[in-house]
User: Which sequence fits this backbone?
C-alpha cells in the first residue's frame, strides 16, 4: 500500500516537471521565432550623421626646400686673405663687407697706371702743339704736306695711348676694389672655406664661403599628370593657391605659402610635372634641401555631403556603407567623391541626416540589429571653415 502511494507521488512530480519544461520551451519558441532560436542581440557600434558642409581639396606630395639664390663667394684677385668680417651662420645683408685681401700690390699697380697715363697725356699735348705749328707753317709753305700728315698721325697715336692708359687706370682701380669682398645677396653664410693668412686665387673653386638666401624660400614638389588640369584652371583665377609645408610625419605645419608656377613640360619617365611654391619663411623654419610634405589647396567644395572616411567600405561591386534604419544595419552602395583626411564626399547613395556606422563595421551584415552612439568624427573641418570666412 505504501509502495503504491510513493509511486503515485513520484509520477505526479514527474508530470509537473515535464509541464514546466514544456512551458519554458514554448515561451522561448514564441520569443525566438518559428525555428525556436533566440533572437540576435543588437550589436553596439559607433555611428555618425551625414551632413552638408564644405571640404577643402588638397593635392599632396613630397617636396624639397630650395633657396631662391645660392652664391659661392670667390675672390676675383690673387693675394693674401687679410681678414674675415662675418661669423659662421650669420645673417647678412647684400653689400656687407665679408673679407679683405691685401691691397698693397694693387695700389702699386694703380700708381703705375696713373704714371703711364700722365706720360701719355703729356705726349699728346706736345703732339697737339706740334700739329698746330705745322698747320701754320704749311700756309707759309715752310713744311710739306707729308710732314703735316705725319704729325696728324702722331697725334692720333698719342690719343690712342691716352685712351689705353686711362683704361689701365680704371682696371687697376677695379682690381683694388675687388680686394674688399662684399655680400652679393642677403642670406645666411655657411662655414668658411679658408682662414685668414692664406694665399687665395681667383681660380680657386672652393671659394671663401657660401651664402644661401632663406627669405623667401622655395619648395619644389611634383604633381601627377591627372592633376595638372585642375591646377592650371585654379591658377587662372585671381586668388593665389595656398600651399602648406608640413613635417615628415605630416602633422605639424611648418609654413604656409603660395604656388608660384608649374614647369612647362611633363617628365615622361614618371608622368609628373614639377611645381614651385614660395614661402616667406620669416622665422627661418624652412631649411635648404629639407624634405617636407606639401599640401596644395586646389579648391573648396561647397554644400557637399560629407561622412567620416572610416564609414566607407569596399567590396567587389564598389564602395558601400552600413546605414542605420529602424535599429538595423542596411548595406548601401555609394559613389564617393574627394576624400581629405578623415572625411569623404558622397555623391550618390546617401542624403543629409542619414546615420552611418563608423566603428564596428567588421562585425556587421545586412539586416543585423544594432545599437549605436554618435561619435565626434563629423566635427567641422577647421580649414574649410577658415577658407569660407576668408
Assistant:
Amino acid at each position: 500500500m505504501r509502495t503504491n502511494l510513493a509511486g503515485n507521488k513520484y509520477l505526479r512530480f514527474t508530470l509537473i516537471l515535464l509541464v514546466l519544461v514544456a512551458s519554458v520551451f514554448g515561451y522561448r519558441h514564441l520569443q525566438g521565432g518559428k525555428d525556436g532560436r533566440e533572437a540576435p542581440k543588437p550589436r553596439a557600434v559607433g555611428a555618425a550623421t551625414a551632413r552638408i558642409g564644405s571640404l577643402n581639396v588638397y593635392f599632396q606630395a613630397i617636396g624639397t626646400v630650395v633657396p631662391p639664390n645660392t652664391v659661392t663667394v670667390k675672390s676675383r684677385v690673387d693675394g693674401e686673405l687679410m681678414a674675415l668680417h662675418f661669423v659662421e651662420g650669420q645673417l647678412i645683408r647684400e653689400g656687407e663687407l665679408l673679407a679683405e685681401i691685401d691691397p698693397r700690390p694693387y695700389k702699386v699697380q694703380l700708381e703705375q697706371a696713373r704714371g703711364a697715363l700722365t706720360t701719355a697725356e703729356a705726349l699728346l699735348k706736345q703732339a697737339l702743339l706740334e700739329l698746330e705749328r705745322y698747320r701754320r707753317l704749311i700756309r707759309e709753305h715752310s713744311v710739306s704736306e707729308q710732314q703735316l700728315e705725319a704729325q696728324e698721325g702722331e697725334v692720333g697715336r698719342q690719343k690712342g695711348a691716352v685712351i689705353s692708359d686711362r683704361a689701365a687706370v680704371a682696371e687697376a682701380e677695379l682690381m683694388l676694389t675687388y680686394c674688399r669682398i662684399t655680400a652679393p645677396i642677403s642670406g645666411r653664410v655657411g662655414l668658411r672655406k679658408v682662414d685668414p693668412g692664406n694665399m687665395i686665387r681667383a681660380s680657386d673653386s672652393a671659394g671663401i664661403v657660401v651664402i644661401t638666401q632663406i627669405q623667401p624660400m622655395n619648395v619644389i614638389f611634383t604633381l601627377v599628370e591627372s592633376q595638372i588640369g585642375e591646377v592650371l584652371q585654379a591658377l587662372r583665377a585671381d586668388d593665389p593657391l595656398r600651399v602648406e609645408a608640413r613635417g615628415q610625419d605630416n602633422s605639424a605645419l611648418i609654413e604656409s605659402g603660395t604656388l608660384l608656377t608649374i614647369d612647362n613640360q611633363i617628365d615622361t619617365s614618371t608622368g609628373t610635372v614639377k611645381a614651385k611654391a614660395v614661402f616667406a619663411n620669416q622665422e627661418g623654419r624652412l631649411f635648404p634641401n629639407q624634405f617636407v610634405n606639401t599640401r596644395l589647396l586646389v579648391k573648396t567644395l561647397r554644400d557637399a555631403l560629407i561622412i567620416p572616411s572610416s564609414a566607407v567600405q569596399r567590396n567587389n561591386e564598389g564602395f558601400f556603407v552600413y546605414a542605420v534604419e529602424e535599429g538595423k544595419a542596411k548595406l548601401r552602395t555609394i559613389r564617393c567623391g574627394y576624400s581629405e583626411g578623415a572625411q569623404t564626399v558622397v555623391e550618390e547613395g546617401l542624403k543629409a541626416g542619414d546615420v552611418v556606422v563608423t566603428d564596428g563595421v567588421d562585425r556587421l551584415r545586412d539586416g543585423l540589429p544594432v545599437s549605436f552612439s554618435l561619435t565626434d568624427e563629423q566635427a567641422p573641418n577647421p580649414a574649410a571653415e577658415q577658407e569660407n570666412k576668408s
About this structure: The mean pLDDT is 85. The helical segments are 2-32, 104-139, 145-177, 228-235, 382-389. The chain has three domains: 43-55+302-389, 59-69+212-300, 74-210.
